[in-house]
Amino acid sequence: MDTRLFAQLPVSKIDQYQPVGGGDINEAYRLTDENGTRYFLLIQPNHTKEFFKHEVVGLKLLAQTVSTPEVLDWGGFGPDAYLLLSYINHQPAGDQYEMGKQLAQLHKRRSPNKQYGFDEGFTMGTYTADNTWQPKWEKFFVNQRLESLKKLIQERGLWTAEMETAYAKSIKTFKRLLAAYHPLPSLLHGDLWSGNFMFDPDGQPVFIDPAVFYGDREFDLGITHVFGGFNADFYQGYQDTYPLEKGFEKRLPFYQLYYLMFHLSQFGAGYQGSVLQMLELCANK
């Protein structure tokens, strides 16, 4: 990292910095200034500041309802983009019931135009999400999520004839299920796996790394089931605050499918079996 960036940041003199875990695509550092205050710095090499625009917008939107790191600065330095956030002192466990309540409150927020999508897309790895506004969730989710991921997987040579057969059946099933279900366009976190929340020293939840858009609230909940990390208290807190509609158990696997297809598109053949298994589950709902 070019430490000359520190002089550009709107903080006191930085005395220490060290690399930390920050996700799959960014360089991440913990900074400490001369007063002992810590900060979290993300750097994306060889990109303009626009790389972080959607995350900045998302964090500021979420912060109106739930706890998030504060955006302190973002911009460009040389060929790289950077994002400076407040540092969250965190612990491995906390109040999952409260986290479920907070997510439910977030989902009560509606899109400004009663449609699904967002004013801009976002990029995760090689996947660019098309957030063009749509009046129908079914079309948005199939055309602007599943189909675009399927194309990426095909380009990597990882989409099989067996997958295609199950996929065609799954899409028919999804459309049938959506005929009797009309979700409201809720504000979504968009990437809510167990690596994208933490608990502060008081055990209160903090949401991080959003990929926001407006869609079916079950989308976020489906993703929470893919890799685990959310316990029964989380789901109870959600249900007590904003109960899910009848039949959600049949719809959640389609949102799990989205997330597994994303991982197959980015991380390769190790996810083929999981995608096929989920496709077959969805096809037979």
From TrEMBL:
UniProt-listed Pfam families: Fructosamin_kin (PF03881)
UniProt superkingdom: Bacteria
Keyword match Signal: no
Protein name per its UniProtKB record: Fructosamine kinase
Family: Belongs to the fructosamine kinase family.
Species in which this protein is naturally found: Lentilactobacillus parafarraginis DSM 18390 = JCM 14109
Keywords: Kinase, Transferase
GO molecular function, one term: kinase activity
